[in-house]
């Protein structure tokens, strides 16, 4: 199965989660910043995982622009999953659900419910065990082909 993890990251925490998900998906998974990735690189049946930190109750601006640029039908036949990183004490938005809605508007099929990973503060670090949890999620996504 072809798979890609596309992310936006502000302080590196979301990048670390994206890389962990990629490891869980397997050695062929590509992990890229959104600006470096085009959905045209995917075929039907591919898996696309997209993530962002929550910034102002929504995805990071650069990833938001990438999502806004997705054309209707550009993800037809592509399975997708969304995640975000957030501070555990405050639920200040839900980037993962906004990402999921944008992916589905582009024609994607949901491979898993949106999920989130926790950081200690705005700049991190990630809470203990989040990297391992992200790798396990990647493995479960790979198993659901």
TrEMBL record:
<dbReference type="InterPro" id="IPR008254">
    <property type="entry name" value="Flavodoxin/NO_synth"/>
</dbReference>
<dbReference type="InterPro" id="IPR029039">
    <property type="entry name" value="Flavoprotein-like_sf"/>
</dbReference>
<protein>
    <submittedName>
        <fullName>Flavodoxin family protein</fullName>
    </submittedName>
</protein>
<dbReference type="Pfam" id="PF00258">
    <property type="entry name" value="Flavodoxin_1"/>
</dbReference>
<dbReference type="InterPro" id="IPR001226">
    <property type="entry name" value="Flavodoxin_CS"/>
</dbReference>
<feature type="domain" description="Flavodoxin-like">
    <location>
        <begin position="3"/>
        <end position="142"/>
    </location>
</feature>
